[in-house]
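Q&A FORM
Asked by: J.P.
Topic: structure of Nucleolar protein 56

PROVIDED:
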Amino acid sequence: GVLHEDLRLLLDTALPPKRKKVVLGVGDAKMGAAVLEELGVQCQTGGVVAELLRGIRLHFSALVRGLTAQSAAKAQLGLGHSYSRAKVKFNVNRVDNMIIQSISLLDQLDKDINTFSMRVRSWYGYHFPELIKIIPENSMYCRVAKFIGNRRELSEESLEGLEEIVMDSAKAQAILEASRSSMGMDISPLDLINIESFSRRVISLSDYRKELQEYLRSKMSQVAPSLSALIGEVVGARLISHAGSLTNLAKYPASTVQILGAEKALFRALKTRGNTPKYGLIFHSTFIGRAAAKNKGRISRYLA
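REPLIED BY: S.T.
REPLY: Here is the structure written out as tokens.
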């Protein structure tokens, strides 16, 4: 409730000089307190005042000379935008926005790559089911599936290229041997083209994920070098994202930082009168990961 200069001027002009008996109806109690403090005018809120204000809002275009319902709607829209902009307080100098967006995109990419890789596995698995056990890693499986294509065309000449992908001569040899005695079904050239095309897109997403992680690492080292050095770029970025900004995270007490990301578990524990969680997102730090089970809570508190 801050009394603007324009409002002060309007009230000084409209109200009589002797204001002891004047009661001003206002919609906001804080504004009423500001008017009372600045001008010494008694203010009333709620009850009949709310009904009067509702009537004024309803017939506003009729009460103000030269104002149409259309121009009133435009004015309301402009006021709404100005109010929202002031509430959001968008700061163009904030550098942690990019970190928040990057970590959100990284998490989404992880989910998408995993889903798509499983689709490639189940799709190509009809043709070469033995490959699933030999290559458990998703990204590498897509690369190998794209390289092999039709398993019947895999030969000794392909072994060198296969070794470059899997980086293991024993695995490459195992794939070659499995392809010769595979129990998978035959596949048409059209099906193979579709599988290879989809595998290419999954590989492209995996490569972009690595680039994004590198970008996040460099951004975190610029914006929050101390946080990155302490708990790592990814965990640090997740904490910033969850807090809303680096400034918010810096203002949080250690007890809040410790359980940041475990709010559901905390409220469940408070509701059921159970044990509260000892850590949230901070659990993914290497310090807590390497600690013994009995010391994890203590280390997380110290780290927070």
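FOLLOW-UP: The chain has three domains: 5-88, 105-215, 224-303.
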